[in-house]
Amino acid sequence: MARLGNSNNRLDGTVLIVCAVLSVIALVLPAQVRQPIASGLRRSVLAPFLSLQKRAEGSRRALEGHDAVIDQRDSVSIRAMSVSALAAENTRLRDLLGLGSRLKWGFVPAEALHGRGSQDEFGVTLSAGSRAGVVKLSPVVAPEGLVGVVDNVDPSISHAMVWTHPDFRVSAMSEDASAFGIVQAHLESGPGRYLLEMRGVPFRTSIRRGTLIVSSGLGGVYPRGIPIGRVLGETKTAESWARTYLIRPAVFPADVYAVMVLLPDRASAGVDNVWAVGAISDSSVRKIVIAGDSLARSAALAEATARQAAQDSATRDSLRKAGVPESLIVPPVAPAPPIRRPAVRSDTTRRDTTHTAAVKHALPARDSAAVSHAP
Amino acid sequence: MTLSGSVRAVITFAVLVLLHFTLRPLLGWRASIDFLLLAVLTAAVRVRPAGAAAIGFIVGMVGDSLAPDSLGAGALAMLLVAYLASWLKAVFFADSLPLNAMFFFVGKWLFDIIYFIAEHHLTGIDLVQQLFLWSPLSAAATAIAGVLVLLVMRPLFEPSSA
Questions:
Q1: Are the beta carbons of A27 and B65 separated by less than 8 Å?
Q2: Are residues A252 and A131 in the same domain?
Q3: What is the value of pTM for the model shown?
Q4: Taking a C-beta distance cutoff of 8 angstroms, is the pair A175, A213 a contact?
Q5: Does residue B83 sit at the A interface (CB-CB below 8 Å)?
Q6: What is the ipTM, given to two decimal places?
Q7: pLDDT digit string, tens, across residues B72-124
């Protein structure tokens, strides 16, 4: 029994020593020998376990990344929500840059600081003052059109009366200068409060819905050609001698955060063609279309003339063959030159010019009178 | 050891090896639980020291194959710990969870000491930090896991009434 125990102990010791020696040999083996042994074990015994380990680690990474993914998704959602506002602001700033490049000189860019009070819907504070050259009665414009007029100037800031003010007046005309009037806020409660009205339009003159109304330049405060709004329709008033039109304003002061203040020199020099880019391109497109039509018409006319000449020639030949005397045969007529109508009616041009000039002389300085009542 | 006892021991061993390759990477702790060592220890106390040494050597070599630069270090550490565990099986068989936890703790810590010294990769302050900070933490985690395994698998470890 004791011998069995001794042999077992000897066996235990032998196995321990053999395993320990093998382990030490494995430790001191060169890398070229160790690598194949390790690789063989990994590919055979360990392969299924390594597959399990890979999946477990993948699961852990997914769990760890879950919160980060959620955070990232939330951030993206928040950013996506602000994208439309940023895009709108970007567009507004681009428009403002475009307006600045078209004005070229004589303006001061300013931020419109909106107040919180109930009376603040009638005015805005501008971040530019007399140090920047702003003076009282300087027109305040935005890329879309007229915003208001400066009514109070401090060295570093100023205050502008916007068109919603009950005392605001601007002498205006239709884009084609066929109708003139005075634009002011539509003093009505309800949604119509944020519209303009054009008063004093002569009864014989009617303005179509959608017509652009611009400042007429009469009165000396606002230069000619600043968009004010578009005609929505005629509204009935007690005045039977003149028409009054409702106008949808081009600019809503509450949405304006950056404006341009026109300096006196610029205002007196005029802002012709600054807001006329759309009109110019429209008229260019119209002219190109008309020119194309003219070419097509000329080609069709030439073809018809040639066909007519061929028919006439055949008729004359048959008459000659039939023995009709040469004197009775009508000689061929030279084709008439194509009638070309001018792309723009000359009478329209003449009428506009005449009308504008006539009205300019006839009407007094109207918007200045209105503005002089401003506080 | 009876046949049923052997089967139970093999099942326990297989479960612990599976946990080593599934639960341990899932937890991803810096002080990780060494389920392989638990498997070797639970097997070692059921066999003779020679068998325990062989089991430790084989499991250690397989584990070392994942780090070929230290091939043999894990095998050496594992076989020594397994041999000692089998030699001290009388203590192990004591039905005391704190004592078993202590043995798992000491076994893991001893394994790490032998492994990191034999591996010869860590030196100086890194070795000290590993042996006296991370290894005890890992040993504690292993001991707690070992106790939980003993609690869960107690029916398997109890001798059959038949």
A1: no
A2: yes
A3: 0.47
A4: yes
A5: yes
A6: 0.83
A7: 889 999 999 999 988 887 555 566 788 888 888 999 999 999 999 888 888 88
